[in-house]
Amino acid sequence: MAYPKKTDYHTQKNTMRSQAQAFLSLRKKLCLVLLCAIQIVCAQSFSLSGKISDYTTRKPIKAAQITLFAADGVSAKASIASNEDGKFALTSLPSDSYHLRITSVGYKPMTLTIAELNKDTDLGELLLKPDTVLLGEITVSANLQKEADRWIFYPSDAIKRQSTDAYDVLQRMALPDLQFDLMNRTLSSQKNGALQIRINGVPSNQSDLAALQPQDVIRVEYIDNPGIVYGDGVAAVLLVHTKRGYEGMQGGVQIANALTTKQGSAYAYFKLIGLKNQLSIKVNSHYKNVGGVFANSYKTFRYPSSDMTLNAQGDDRTYRLCGGSIELDYNRLLDERNSFFNVMANYTTSYRPENVSSSRVQHNDAPFFYEELLTKDKTHNVSLDLYLDKQFASNANLLANLTATYIGSDYHRAYSKAYHAAAQPAFTNAYDVDGQHKSIIGEIVFKQPFSNWLNLTIGTYNRLSNTHNTYVATNGTSPTSLFNFNNYDYIELSGTLGKLSYSVGGGYSFYRMKSDSLIAKYHFFRPFLTLSYSISKAFRLQYHLGINPVEPQLAMLSSFVQTRSEYELRQGNPHLKPYQAYINQLSLSFHKRETMLGLATYIQYSANPFTNNPPIYDAATNMFVYTQSNQHSFTHLQVRLYASQSLFSQAFKVSGWLTLNRYINNGLSFFTTYTDIIGGLSLTYDRPKWGIQGNFRSAITTMFNETKTRTAPNLQLSAYYNIRRLRFTLSVNNPFMTATTTVSTLNSKLISSTSHVFQKYNDNLVQLSLSYSFRKGKVRNLQKQMDNADNDAGVVK
Predict the structure, then answer these.
(1) Which domains does the chain have, with CATH numbers?
(2) pLDDT tens, position by position, 56-79
(3) Global pTM?
(4) In this structure, are residues 513 and 465 in contact, taking their beta carbons and an 8 Å threshold?
(5) pLDDT digits (tens, 9 = 90+) for 658-682
């Protein structure tokens, strides 16, 4: 057997040991190289941060756009928006030279040069100065953007912090020609028409503003000359835009109750919000059980052979009312262009239990009789609303809306009188109404922009309704029915030519009404024109021409004869025809920084409007009959002034308006005119935790046909205090004022009357309310999924 030599063994062992040491040495070198490379890489990645604030107030600016450009100033390397505290941070930046540009609506842009970024850098507080600049034909000033056909308001962070919901945001933004009721939390337009509210494009109720938390409101578009797509009789439109990207839940509650009488309201909402889905439920209720409600009247009846004058003094009675609603709403985003589908189901009920009004009547200064009127009313309203807003890649927009409604009503009215002289028999009259109303409304609108100077809009609106009312009266049963169909097709061209913005269009309306056995058809052509010219950065001139048809209410067309008293009847007229109101409006507006001024002239001419006839005497029944007919014409002339001013960094706001009205009624057998001047003033002062508000409106007097009506002036004062998300508000209505009255005067050939309606509970009315809201969730960055800049696709334009 052969054995290896000992020297060979040791040689092999030494060789293996040398190879192992060399391998270990190589591993150490590789690790060292790798660690050095990592250090080099890490050393070349830095961050850039800072805080954006207002130069004047030093308050943080939210949603300022921070863009980092390469040294050439062209290639964008990173972009981010500042958060609620105005802070931003750009990370993982390689060592290099950059240009940093900061922009925000209403502020001068800021550009910083960063030479050789070689460490984590905090730029500290960067102050942006407010400015007014001209961008094409769009003027931007502070938090307001003026376009040719609308004002676009961007609520500041201060306004959002001082508000509990979108209603508060609107109230603090001093929007022109809007009147706010602080007690009832409602708003209306002073521009002789309805105010329409749309939230993210969906037509909404005013109560829906309470379900929008202020931090979600990104902008409000106020259209003071609405286009043809917004419907008939709409004087102004508020488009409220909310931001996307929040996921989680939101909720809130508002409770208000009077301390001086029995009335109050409650509102609550809850939302589940996903990235593409939103489900909400809204509930509200209200009640009223108030005293001090009565009417005094002085009336003269002129019979063929003699006159009879009655002086009625009302008894102080209680008025009761309660009601509420529940609404379910589901919204789903359909694509990256913010197309969405919305479903809303609503149930509303109103109940007035037996309310009795009574009065003691004198004739020739002697007691004559005692009368009572008892009414009871219950109404149920169920509706289902489907809404689609589809955006296309070509920027075309399709809107579709379908609404089905059912209204059931149960009404009871009983009138009785007992004479002071026992020899005269008592008089009674009563009837009940069982009403059912069903309707389906559908509308489709298609809008195609071709260029900046030309946009095409085509739409069709169709409404079908069927009403059945059964009147069960003392002298028998009277069933009535009304079938109504309305079709409206329209086209609109709009755009901008230099400093001139235009909207011109027209439509064709067709009405078909069947009342019992009577069938009527009507046709209307409806041209439309709006012109807006930017005279300068601050001044804008607008002209509006519209022709709107006005339909009679269903009750006016009923042939049912209502007995008002032993001496009076009221009878409907199935032959009433719709009429057209021709509207011309010219306005000049001025806006510079925190000052806004406006002057508007308004002329409405209505051809053959339906209104009350002078009362006639019916010899067969020995009673006076009130009827309605289409008259010759009605003209309303108006001159309106508006001004608002913000002071102390928008902490204090004052606005006021003054209006001159002239009414001309040209009837078939009467001619009346009246001129009135009314005005109002609003003050708001807000601090971080508390604030005060005040609204005043002078008395309003109107003149329609032969009836003049005066509504008493109104003063409202309000103060609030915030404890985090909880707000306490104390409001007073008509402090130190006399009894609230509405005075109506009729001067006709056969009847002269003056009535004073009192609502004493409204005087020195003190109300305490509290509101609370919560939100739990997170905000996601949706830049890669949808564009939520100033082109929210949920808005109808």
Answers:
(1) 46-128 (2.60.40.10), 144-243 (2.170.130.10), 268-779 (2.40.170.20)
(2) 667 789 888 898 888 766 567 788
(3) 0.76
(4) no
(5) 999 999 999 999 999 999 999 999 9
